[in-house]
Amino acid sequence: xxxxxxxxxxxxxxxxxxxxxxxxxxxxxxxxxxxxxxxxxxxxxxxxxxxxxxxxxxxxxxxxxxxxxxxxxxxxxxxxxxxxxxxxxxxxxxxxxxxxxxxxxxxxxxx
Amino acid sequence: xxxxxxxxxxxxxxxxxxxxxxxxxxxxxxxxxxxxxxxxxxxxxxxxxxxxxxxxxxxxxxxxxxxxxxxxxxxxxxxxxxxxxxxxxxxxxxxxxxxxxxxxxxxxxxxxxxxxxxxxxxxxxxxxxxxxxxxxxxxxxxxxxxxxxxxxxxxxxxxxxxxxxxxxxxxxxxxxxxxxxxxxxxxxxxxxxxxxxxxxxxxxxxxxxxxxxxxxxxxxxxxxxxxxxxxxxxxxxxxxxxxxxxxxxxxxxxxxxxxxxxxxxxxxxxxxxxxxxxxxxxxxxxxxxxxxxxxxxxxxxxxxxxxxxxxxxxxxxxxxxxxxxxxxxxxxxxxxxxxxxxxxxxxx
Lengths: 111, 348
Known about the structure:
The structure holds 2 protein chains of 2 kinds. By secondary structure, chain A is mainly α. Helices cover 67% and strands 0% of the residues of chain A.
């Protein structure tokens, strides 16, 4: 048995989470499926958003899944990397914007 | 790049290809059988719905050697349809009510009898589709073909796997994208792909790698937007075609370690609606030597039409062919995955 925490084959077993809690699992997958249907956003746009979020939450399963999904829905390499940069910008920005809190505290404490 | 055939590569042999997609390892062996999936939905044995498309592969010679080519076409291939076989095809067309003639290859334009045949079929009032690789239209010898196509109202369906240069050239060879743009602009100049001209210009999208095509309409809209923005190119329709696990694409799957996952994905994406609409139900494929097949993929695997039906164009009998059993194997999962795949794109 593979001892690593993330095993590629486990992605194919995602649906098996219903084994321990069928009702909630089924509700989740029904919702999940509907979220990714074409709506106000196209499937390609949703795949790119999911790709960016996958990098933010650093989920290897999600990165594999939504890289494939983005390719299948016609996204270019440039679009996919721009999506990852959006993730990085928000992550970096969320650290930096807290710098204002740090500055406020410094000013509160300083003479 | 040489063809697998020129390298006497083992994957140039249909029996080796069929063995790999059936028996390569335990995982491949464990996958559902295509005929069983058809049986589950009452479609086995698979029968035609009636032949509407007469698809002629007029030779495996091509000016290109694309990495995914299911024909293993290239400049070194010498298989080419003779005028005698073309005559048999014309006789069959004359004696049947099949309206659409679909010319493929290799590069069909490279057959020396190509123009003569188009003239003959056009005079019979047939609707002619030519599957062009586009780059051939930029060579001196063939640069007048767009006007020839226009004169005979030929529908031009051409390969462009992606709207970006890097991805297109990775599949079809360096410089392909730029030449394709030149050819598309030329076709646009004389009215192809333009509104109200009636001159149809379609693009064929193949995934550049081990993944399936997504939603055809969405990809078409993205191509339209990007090609218009970057090159002012217009086209009518776009057909998404799934890469089937044979020939050079099979070689890619093996070399990249993607065979098992790809086959599993094809099988797992089996769509009964797509199975209802597979192209072999309304198409007959004629090989360069006149042998009949259920589709161009079966042709490359040398799976000729069922022995109880006619098997050569000189014996053409529409009634017999419309009642034949269509031969299937594991590669057929490529036509039934997701939204389905055919020479005319998605089937659902």
